[in-house]
Design a protein that fits this description.
The structure is a homodimer.
Chain A lengths: L3 H29 L6 H7 L14 H22 L6 H18 L1 H8 L10 H20 L5 H21 L10 H17 L9
Helix pairs in contact in A: 1-2, 3-5, 3-6, 4-5, 4-7, 4-8, 7-8
The structure holds a DNA duplex.
DNA sequence: CAAGTCTCCTAACTATGTTAGATCAACCGA
DNA sequence: TCGGTTGATCTAACATAGTTAGGAGACTTG
């Protein structure tokens, strides 16, 4: 009747191996890029042959998906750890700063999470969920700061994404764009501020 | 002594075929994505077998490079065709509008030119040159409008890149972000305007 | 026409994701 | 303790990719 203990040991071993595989994949990705991951390399790094990985993942994309899920969980955890000070400008700066730091801390992870650069890969809904939740938190937070216009939120996320995009594309490893987080946030805040007290602007577009 | 005519005919035929190959590659890219290009498909579309392409290009990446060069030339032509009105805000809007339209008009081309999404590919200096020249024109134009702070230029390009990046990543084919070109430009202009008349700001960064 | 060059072909090599099928150990119920 | 089941791993092999080697045929050139 006691078939739980052994089952559990097996399951634990299994998820340990899965984690080991994912770690190996991250390692290779950081050395050779996301697209540089080959199943034979991953397998070798955990002491296996390539086909054996299929006992743990249905496909290479399933490995990407597990990596995506891990990254998305980290991102969500970081977002949830942000503690609002109450000062809108400070909170906006902290938010964008976190986003930019998260990106530069691990460019490969950012590439996997926020750019669509792996040819046939799309994250599963389960893996994507934490990312959605994080964005929802950001939306709610901006709304709490008095910025409820969806266009304003889009502009704010575009600012962050733009800084990172330019940084990675034109000066990887540098800070020519990422150091603009504060000015960018101030620019945004100055623009969006009047809308809080008075009727909305920004409806015109030629 | 007249070996020019035939030589020329041959050379012309050769560059015609090269152009045909590149066109076929663009076609496939628009149907199946940049990474979806296979030499066998390209060859079939011009009535050849894959190895025959090597008479015209040294490698698959050389085909990407030729495509990049073509796209960069188009971009430069578009930038050069922009005619300043003299009104700074209008000119800024037109500039960013052109950039965004160029991107949405042909996402695959934008992806090739401005994102680094093809695993082993990097454009050759010759192919890259027009892009550099275009950016130089943009820099000079902003400077002419009184925006000489390099940080301001970087902020401006990040804004454009961010709108497109978010648009492509989150709502391909839509206009949720690209329609923010005018508000974004106004935001930028309002922020950078004071610096034109008075001493510069934006030196602080914590 | 003869020699050379260019174009295109088939065959084949390598790398990569993936599948099929065998082997072997661990485990489980009797 | 023993036979059957399950699971992990392997080798062999396949399909698809870019790429190379080498040759056949056509065109150009003298």
């Amino acid at each position: 009747m006691l078939d739980q203990p052994t089952r559990n040991r097996r399951a634990e071993q299994r998820s340990r191996t899965r984690a080991e595989i994912i770690d190996a994949a991250w390692e290779i990705a950081r050395e050779s890029g996301l697209a540089g991951i080959t199943l034979r390399d991953v397998a070798a790094r955990v002491g296996m042959r390539a086909p054996s990985l299929y006992s743990y993942f249905d496909s290479k994309n399933a490995i990407y998906d597990a990596m995506f899920a891990e990254g998305a969980r980290d991102f969500l955890a970081g977002v949830e750890a942000l503690t609002p000070t109450g000062d809108p400008l400070t909170d906006l700066k902290n938010g964008m700063r976190f986003y930019v730091d998260f990106a530069t801390a691990d460019p490969v992870r950012y590439q996997l999470l926020f750019q669509r650069t792996i040819p046939g890969f799309e994250p599963s809904p389960e893996s994507y969920a934490p990312a959605v939740k994080a964005l929802e938190i950001a939306r709610a937070e901006l709304s709490r700061l008095g910025i409820s216009d969806p266009g304003a939120l889009d502009l704010f996320t575009a600012l962050g994404a733009g800084l990172i995009s330019q940084q990675f594309a034109n000066e990887p490893g540098g800070d020519r764009w990422t150091r603009l987080v504060d000015p960018a946030t101030e620019m945004f805040y100055a623009y969006v501020l009047p809308a809080r007290d008075q009727g909305n602007r920004r409806e015109r577009r030629q």
